[in-house]
């Protein structure tokens, strides 16, 4: 049986959460503002990337600005009704994240298989509706957690979130969280594999007769796919670590690393992938990103 964290270890773990979460907030904010400035994203893919980064940023914010400070100042507050709202908010951002991944996969699939219809499928109106629906569903799914018997609360003994051990907590945790996440990631995996197959078939046709601009745009869309594909791999890794591998180690720090730390770190890594695949964002300075984002905020409204 795994020994619980003692007071000193809880403090150390809370500091790790605070620092890792703060880094995640900073990087995701930079990506959000950078996407609003970058010209090559386009309205549809840009909105979806922003939705994903908002979810990542929200996760990191809850950990760094709520979970960590409560753990350092008043750990017992986690077991109260209002303290458990941290878990409910995290679930909202988690759902926003997985459904944003799904929308990204569908977006890349449409680019490859329906290039002539893509502009209509993901026009400004349809994309806005889709992104709005992501967050409506995310908030709706988390409404069950208002009942304390169904809550998702942070336990300082393990320094991670767990569902309360009640009938409602078991049902919500199993069906509305675990199975829902598996269903979404399974769909994302299938769609991504089909998209990858489409890219391979498209490349076999060659581009010798393509115009230079058409070839350039195709390479950009392919790069965006591999960006989304890398983010999906990160998402799958997070699920495997949290729900499967974390159940095996007896060492409490190993479990902490595979659950709480992995949750925060993977959200940060997700944003880092956007930076890796987009030189235009990497080359931006923080001050210029903020100024430009404020001056062009109407672009994605």
Automatic annotation (TrEMBL):
InterPro entries: 7TM_GPCR_serpentine_rcpt_Srx. The chain crosses the membrane at residues 12-33, 54-72, 92-114, 126-146, 178-203, 224-244, 256-277. Signal peptide: none annotated. CDD domains: 7tm_classA_rhodopsin-like. It holds the Pfam family 7TM_GPCR_Srx. Keywords: Membrane, Transmembrane, Transmembrane helix. Residues 19-278 form the 7TM GPCR serpentine receptor class x (Srx) domain. The keyword Transmembrane applies. PANTHER family: G-PROTEIN COUPLED RECEPTORS FAMILY 1 PROFILE DOMAIN-CONTAINING PROTEIN (PTHR23017:SF3), SERPENTINE RECEPTOR, CLASS X (PTHR23017). This is 7TM GPCR serpentine receptor class x (Srx) domain-containing protein. It comes from Steinernema hermaphroditum.
